[in-house]
Amino acid sequence: xxxxxxxxxxxxxxxxxxxxxxxxxxxxxxxxxxxxxxxxxxxxxxxxxxxxxxxxxxxxxxxxxxxxxxxxxxxxxxxxxxxxxxxxxxxxxxxxxxxxxxxxxxxxxxxxxxxxxxxxxxxxxxxxxxxxxxxxxxxxxxxxxxxxxxxxxxxxxxxxxxxxxxxxxxxxxxxxxxxxxxxxxxxxxxxxxxxxxxxxxxxxxxxxxxxxxxxxxxxxxxxxxxxxxxxxxxxxxxxxxxxxxxxxxxxxxxxxxxxxxxxxxxxxxxxxxxxxxxxxxxxxxxxxxxxxxx
DNA sequence: ACTATTTGACCTTA
DNA sequence: TAAGGTCAAATAGT
Length: 294
Prior knowledge:
Blueprint: H1 2-10, H2 17-46, H3 50-53, E1 59-65, E2 71-77, E3 81-88, E4 102-108, E5 117-122, H4 125-128, E6 133-138, E7 145-151, H5 164-176, E8 187-193, H6 201-206, H7 220-223, H8 234-245, H9 258-263, H10 275-279, H11 289-292
Antiparallel strand pairs: 1-2, 3-7, 3-8, 4-5, 5-6, 6-7
Helix pairs in contact: 1-2
The structure holds a DNA duplex.
């Protein structure tokens, strides 16, 4: 606001274009940072339990075909549903390993979407009756991103075939070795709404999260690492709140809505494991988001 | 031979 | 009725 007011006062024939450009740049930078702070707050709004439990247990009339093609009225329970967005820039593409084995059973062009949606079900559906499914669709905004929607929980025993702690070790090794871009499998989960599976121990210990789409926050280090289940721990969330509620920030007011945040391409987590990234945020900004988007 | 994927047809849902 | 979701025969891969 301050920069904008300054710019406003400069709009006269005497103001130099360079001066105005500088102020414009500062305003744009502030907007970026503001959105980053909103992303932090989105962590809490996205994880509102209601958003994931609303479908659970609700009965719905439907008709299913029996062997004789007769239509039979039945009740069914809608499966619990989760969604997350995955950024993939490596060779794995949408077939990245999330620890479960999936069988592709369909592909569909979606209206007003540039990329088809792929349908997967758990490999153990027939053998163990596991009803978990997932849908994968390349993002329209950024071809490096995939929207993944999980439906139903795994009840199969043969799941989680991948030792994720080993994967994390490998990722940390790559990070420490400062491996270049070539031939490194990159997988960044940048948005997650209640991961459908019980996080493994190594995941909660290593939980790291970072903002997506915000170039200043997509560090080269993070983009070369493998992250799985990036929800912040309770301690980290508490830490976030502490930062946001510190004296420096006591005047900040957030007025976001979950929907707008979730739909924002900037929605994501900030990687708290990289301290200087947090330092990059100018937390002294005052934001009233309701005015921000009107 | 067995398993996984592709893809057009069919079914369900709103 | 259109769009999304699933089925299953054909095909590909091992």
